[in-house]
Amino acid sequence: MTTQSLTTKVLIIGAGTGGYVAGIRCGQLGLETVLVDASEGLGGTCLNVGCIPSKAVIHAANKFETVAKAANGGTLGITASKPSVDLKQTVEWKNGIVKKLNAGVAGLLKKAKVKVIKGWATFSDAKTCTVKTDDGEITISAEHVILATGSEPVELPFLPFGGDVISSTEALSLDKVPGKLVVVGGGYIGLELGIAYRKLGAEVTVVEMAERILPLYDKALTDPVAKWMEKHGVTLMLGAKAGGFEKGQLNVTDKDGQAVKLKADKVLVTVGRRPRTKGWGLENMGVAMAGPFVKIDDLCATSMKNVWAIGDLTGEPMLAHKGSAQGEVVAEIIAGHDRRFDPVTIAAVCFTEPEIVSSGLGPNDVEGRDDVIQAVFPLMAIGRALAIEAGDDGGFVRVIASKTDHRLLGVQAVGQHVSELSNSFAQMLEMGAVLEDVAGVIHVHPTLGEAFHEASLRALGHAIHI
User: Fold this and answer.
1) Which site from 79, 404, 414, 425 is most exposed, i.e. has the minimal number of CB atoms within 10 Å?
2) Quick one: angle between helices 87-111 and 51-71, nearest 10?
3) Active site residue 144
4) Which of 321, 337, 445, 462 is catalytic?
5) C-alpha span between 392 and 396 (Å, rounded)
6) How far is CA 207 from CA 49, 190, 330, in A?
7) How many angstroms separate the Cα of 76 from the Cα of each of 53, 72, 388?
8) pLDDT tens readout for residues 408-452
């Protein structure tokens, strides 16, 4: 085993959507950069075991559901024979997408002249770390350090991961559809995967401590999801607490305090994620913390000079696109540009059935205020929605604006395919648009985006199609 020493302008720890974007931007700006990552594939949680593979599995589940409908009496005049799914092949297809994107990230980093080192980094002080690689140890000293270590699934002490108790990571690589799947946690990760596996034929039960699913979203947005789950035989146990798992049974205390045993082939635990702060020497760096997260300012600077932190490590919202945006900002600051990370909004999407989008302020944020306008436009009044079977599940677009100057404060939507509207919502909010701006944009017909136009018109008192 050999030991090497290396110095660099910028050292980045973690090649997730924050770290690799920071690396590419540093390279573009001519900064000597070393990126250290211990995972099997570049791209972090999002690319390898999160956003991308989960959406691939959800897409496959949607296709299976469409064929299953055609086999069960037909749909839209289309009939088919009863479908089956070989989940191994589905997972292989998903893995192929991931590998293609891994290679793409590697190529982009190489193009940007970023030196990538595969191994586990441990810091001895704020600017020095030792990386354990397959070929020996490398000690790296840097002028600037960007921490982008990401997050990991929260493990319940009485339901440790292993065997048939799985996290979202294992749920994306099962070799067969479980007959009975119990999901512990009714947040977006659990529901996205639980709904996908229900479409693939699993019997699904969701155990959630809160009184309703997706407690971070307002009830109007989550009701269509709850109705889909009820209609499709997903069992919801709300106000319930999970216990231990033994002999194929999960112990649950229901909302009435009664002990229940649920049979389960797999128990998917999705009770949240926590920043990855252990095992790499954060305690030796002298940076201030904000609870479990690394504390940063609007430059993404920590309390230690020239040590920066981005992504899930820095707090909510723990979203990939936030980390990427922060990575670009930090690279440009290091290069001498005048930048801040001060977004008006960071839109969030929940890829359930139907999908949910939220950006800016929601109804709960403006409750009791008499200086705002709220208007909702249903997708059932949008021709495109009806033409793609997206008009009868309670979907809508909602705008919230200031009563005095009509400035948009928030936009939300629930419905099939509404994730594709999220960038339009965020763009309008980021640019400080008023209702008249949205109303003045000629929206393409027929599209779902017309609902944003109509909701804004309705807030102004003159919607056309309702």
Assistant:
1) 404
2) 150
3) no
4) 445
5) 10
6) 23, 10, 40
7) 30, 12, 11
8) 999 999 999 999 999 999 999 999 999 999 999 999 999 999 999
